[in-house]
Design goal:
The protein is of the alpha+beta class and 274 residues long. The chain has six helices and eleven strands. The structure holds a DNA duplex (16 and 16 nucleotides).
Length: 274
DNA sequence: AGTAGGACCTGGTGGC
DNA sequence: TGCCACCAGGTCCTAC
């Protein structure tokens, strides 16, 4: 599911509902989502901790808690975090329910059970696979055309595989990779070391623009994605290629091609992207 | 070093 | 309507 814009939208929707509230306890329905520490330790450690703030790094959500702890959540494909009143029936696939000091509940729901939850001392990111090795935040000032040039030069692969590599750029997933490549007019299998300066500049702006548009529309709800209030996003109506295989390219009218690139379903225009 | 393929899970869709 | 194959916003691991 969620890529950077969706995770950012979840973060923004949760902030006003969670910051300065205390987690009074947690009910565990499926312990498998808790990757560290043990389920028992998790339940003991998190009780009575105050949520001081929420941050995002790549596709990870980081809840800064009192006591020097951070609750880290990765939603993977179908994870959802929703704030609900306790009287609302707990839906199927709800794995954790946090009780909050204001009487509400924070529920972690995940159909496919791929989501991962950790509770670690703040800063001990090495305890979490993937988080410590994340690459640059694409919407930060650290991400520049020069930085992109440097990253591209260090990898010899297809450009779509590069965009999906979280150790290079953090947060781009399958939807925004396809959208950015179409916007930039680049074929997903173009080699990273064969792009000229103008193409890199175009790609740089396309990646940022698509992520920013995704946030502005509050994320893409092709299937399961909802924000912290249970609301769907709106960017699915703006998609130019993702989920549009066989339909006409909105630039040239020719049918979009659906293939597999870097092991992922990929849609592009063989005329506009080369 | 790169990528392909399988694994992890459940559910929706489209074909027959 | 039923059954089946295949597909899905991610990442990790193994094998070429």
């Amino acid at each position: 599911m969620p890529e950077l814009p969706e995770v950012e939208t979840v973060k923004r929707s949760l902030e006003p509902l969670l910051v300065n509230r205390k987690i009074t306890g947690v009910n565990v329905y499926y312990a498998g989502v808790i990757k560290f520490p043990s389920s028992l330790e998790f339940q003991e450690l998190i009780a009575e901790k105050e949520i001081r703030g929420i941050n995002r790094r790549g596709k990870y959500l980081l809840f800064e808690l009192s006591g020097g702890l951070t609750l880290v959540i990765h939603l993977r494909m179908t994870g959802q975090i929703v704030i609900s009143p306790p009287e609302k029936q707990v839906s199927k696939h709800t794995h954790l329910v946090f009780s909050l000091s204001d009487g509400q509940e924070m529920r972690f729901i995940d159909i496919r059970k791929f989501g991962m939850i950790y509770l670690v001392p703040t800063g001990d990111w090495h305890l979490i696979g993937g988080l410590a090795s994340l690459g640059v935040e694409p919407l930060s000032d650290d991400f520049t055309p020069q930085k992109l040039t440097e990253l591209l030069s260090k990898k010899k692969s297809g450009i779509k595989a590069f965009l999906l590599d979280q150790t290079k750029i953090a947060g781009v997933g399958n939807i925004y990779a396809d959208e950015a490549l179409h916007a930039a007019g680049l074929h997903p299998e173009r080699k990273t070391d064969m792009l000229n300066d103008a193409e890199i500049e175009t790609l740089y702006h396309a990646v940022r623009a698509k992520l920013q548009e995704g946030i502005a529309f509050r994320g893409t709800s092709v299937r399961d994605y909802v924000d912290g209030k249970g609301e769907k996003g709106g960017f699915q109506k703006q998609l130019k290629v993702y989920d549009r295989g066989g339909k006409p390219c909105l630039n040239c009218g020719r049918p979009l091609v659906k293939t597999t690139v870097a092991g992922r379903g990929t849609v592009f225009c063989s005329f506009c992207q080369d």
